[in-house]
Each structure stands twice: as C-alpha cells, then as structure tokens.
Design brief:
The protein is globular. Strands 1-2 form a two-stranded antiparallel ribbon. By secondary structure, the protein is mainly alpha-helical. It has 8 helices and 2 strands; from the N terminus they run H-H-H-H-E-E-H-H-H-H. The two termini are 32 Å apart. Helix 2 (27-36) crosses helix 5 (88-107). It folds into 2 domains: 15-86, Arc Repressor Mutant, subunit A, CATH 1.10.10.10; 88-140, no CATH class. It has helices at residues 15-22, 27-36, 42-47, 54-66, 88-107, 109-112, 121-124, 128-132, and strands spanning 70-74, 82-86.
C-alpha cells in the first residue's frame, strides 16, 4: 500500500522548512529551556547550557524570534530587562519535541541511559505528561 498523497500542490516537502531552524546547533536545548522555565532570561538559558556561548545564544534567539517561535517580553519590574516566551507557533512545538523524546527514550536508550534500558518518557521525566498539558493546543 502506498502512503497517502497530498491533495494540494506542495512547493517543498512540508517537514523541510521546520527542520531548517530546529536542527541548528543548540536550538532544541534552548527551546527546552523556554518551555521549562516560567520566564526564562538570557543569562538563565546561558547558565543551564554549558558550552553555549553568549554570541551563539543571541543568534539562535534572533532566529527563533524571526521564525515566530518565540518572542521577547519586557519585564514588568524593569523595562530594560526582557524574558522570552513561546509564541503560539512555538507552543505547537512542545508536543513535537515530546514525541522525539519518547522515541529517543525507547529507541536510543543505549546512548542516553547509563544502563542502556529503554524507558517510557514518564519514567525518565516524572510528571512530564502533566506538565505538557499546559501546552495543549486550544480546542477548535
């Protein structure tokens, strides 16, 4: 049986545009911080990603902002300070990243876990399923 064919013309394979920005070095750990922290600031993201340079972090933030995945939000305490939040487009990525994590926990266990044993995502990240509900897409 053949896979389904699109009913509308495609200019490119649909996954290709998304992978362009998402597969760049450090993008996924930066996005994870955006999801995991309530109001992530530049220095917090930098601190939690050993090896990430300030210059590269600034570049990735600018790319993600240009792509409409995140936005800068001025602090209500000090307008000179900003934090970052996922845009609606960025929030849609949460479940994509969780699906990749589920895949990795099951199929790449030898590379991820010291004992090499596959796990369900909830075993590796207790509470992740409940946490992810914050990012559920709105009902149509």
């Amino acid at each position: 049986m053949e896979p389904p064919r699109p009913t509308v013309p495609l200019a490119t394979w649909p996954i290709k545009p998304s992978l362009g920005v998402l597969c760049r070095k450090w993008t996924l750990p930066i996005l994870w911080d955006m999801m995991a922290k309530p109001e992530p600031r530049f220095t917090e993201i930098l601190r939690s990603n050993a090896g990430l340079s300030p210059r590269l972090l600034a570049m990735r933030i600018n790319e993600l902002e240009r792509e409409g995945i995140l936005r800068r939000v001025p602090s209500t305490v000090d307008a000179r300070e900003v934090y970052y939040e996922l845009s609606p487009k960025g929030r849609d990525l949460v479940h994509v990243l969780l699906a990749v994590l589920r895949f990795a926990a099951k199929n790449e266990a030898g590379r991820i876990f010291p004992d090499g044993q596959p796990r369900k995502l909830e075993e590796a990240y207790p509470g992740v399923e409940e946490w992810a509900k914050r990012f559920a897409p709105p009902e149509p």
